C-alpha cells in the first residue's frame, strides 16, 4: 500500500509531528536567540506571506533550533487551523525517500510533500551527498515556494558552509532569512537556570544561580542537564543546594 496516496480524498488531515511541550510559551528568549524567535513569530502570523521564506535557523547542537521551529508550527496551527503543518527531520525525510524509490513511488512522495502549507525540515545539512534526495527536495521546495507556502529549515551551519549540496538548493536556502542561534549570554543563562529550577521544584539561592551562570559556558540542553544533576544529588544526599555542593557535583559540567 502506498503511504503517500489516499484514494478519493482531496484534503487530508496530516499529523504535524509536533511535540506539545515545544512552544513559544516554554521557549526562553534572550539576546542569543531574539532574531530567530521574532522572525519565527512573524512567520507564524503570516506563513508564506512574509520576507522570511525560507526561514533558515542555524546554530550548534543544543541551542534550541528544534524548539523554536516546533514553536512556529504550534503557533501556525493555533492561528491558522486550516493549514497543513508538518515537522520532519531530514533523516526521516531521507528514509521515506529511499522507501519511495524502492517501491517506485517517487512522484507520489513528492506530491504528498507538495500538499503541505508549512513544511519544517530539521537538520537540512543531512542532505549532504544525497543526490536523489536533493533532486526530490528541490522539486518540493520550488512548488511550495511558487505556491506561496512556507518553508522552515534548521542546520548546524549557515548555507555558505554546507558541502556537497547542489548550488541551486543552496541559492534557494539564502532567499529568505538566515538567523543564527548563539550560546546563551549571561542574562539568558540566569533566566534559564531560574525557570528550570522552578520546574524542578527546587529552591536555589541567587549566589548558586550566579555561580552556575558564571561557570557553565554550555548550551541550553547542557545547562538543563547540569541543573537536574545538581537538584537530584541534593535530594538523594539530603543536602541543601549550595555553591559548595554545586562545585562538588558539577565537575563534569563546570570548568573550575
From TrEMBL:
Gene Ontology MF, one: DNA replication origin binding
Keywords: ATP-binding, Cytoplasm, DNA replication, DNA-binding, Lipid-binding, Nucleotide-binding
AAA+ ATPase domain mapped to chain residues: 51-181
SUPFAM superfamilies: P-loop containing nucleoside triphosphate hydrolases
GO biological process: DNA replication initiation
SMART domains reported in the protein's UniProt record: AAA (SM00382)
Keyword ATP-binding: yes
Keyword Ribonucleoprotein: no
CC terms in the record's Gene Ontology section: plasma membrane
Gene3D superfamilies documented for this protein: 1.10.8.60, P-loop containing nucleotide triphosphate hydrolases
Entry's family note: Belongs to the DnaA family.
Protein name: Chromosomal replication initiator protein DnaA
Organism of provenance: human gut metagenome
Lineage: unclassified sequences, metagenomes, organismal metagenomes
Amino acid at each position: 500500500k502506498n503511504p503517500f496516496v489516499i484514494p478519493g480524498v482531496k484534503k487530508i488531515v496530516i499529523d504535524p509531528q509536533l511535540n506539545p511541550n515545544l512552544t513559544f510559551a516554554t521557549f526562553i528568549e534572550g539576546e542569543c536567540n531574539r532574531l530567530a524567535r521574532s522572525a519565527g513569530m512573524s512567520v507564524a502570523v503570516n506563513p508564506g506571506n512574509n520576507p522570511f521564506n525560507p526561514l533558515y535557523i542555524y546554530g550548534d547542537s543544543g541551542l534550541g533550533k528544534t524548539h523554536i521551529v516546533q514553536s512556529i508550527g504550534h503557533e501556525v496551527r493555533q492561528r491558522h487551523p486550516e493549514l497543513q503543518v508538518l515537522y520532519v527531520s531530514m533523516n526521516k525525510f531521507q528514509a521515506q525517500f529511499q522507501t519511495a524509490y524502492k517501491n517506485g513511488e517517487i512522484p507520489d512522495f513528492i506530491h504528498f510533500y507538495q500538499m503541505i502549507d508549512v513544511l519544517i525540515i530539521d537538520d537540512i545539512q543531512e542532505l549532504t551527498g544525497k543526490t536523489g534526495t536533493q533532486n526530490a527536495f528541490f522539486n518540493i521546495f520550488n512548488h511550495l515556494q511558487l505556491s506561496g507556502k512556507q518553508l522552515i529549515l534548521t542546520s548546524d551551519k549557515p548555507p555558505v558552509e554546507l558541502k556537497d549540496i547542489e548550488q541551486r538548493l543552496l541559492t534557494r536556502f539564502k532567499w529568505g532569512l538566515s538567523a543564527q542561534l548563539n550560546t546563551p549570554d549571561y542574562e539568558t543563562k540566569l533566566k534559564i537556570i531560574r525557570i528550570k529550577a522552578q520546574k524542578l521544584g527546587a529552591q536555589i539561592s541567587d549566589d548558586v544561580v550566579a555561580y552556575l551562570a558564571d561557570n557553565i559556558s554550555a548550551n541550553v540542553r547542557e545547562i538543563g542537564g547540569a541543573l537536574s544533576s545538581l537538584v537530584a544529588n541534593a535530594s538523594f544526599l539530603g543536602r541543601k543546594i549550595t555553591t559548595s555542593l554545586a562545585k562538588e557535583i558539577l565537575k563534569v559540567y563546570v570548568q573550575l
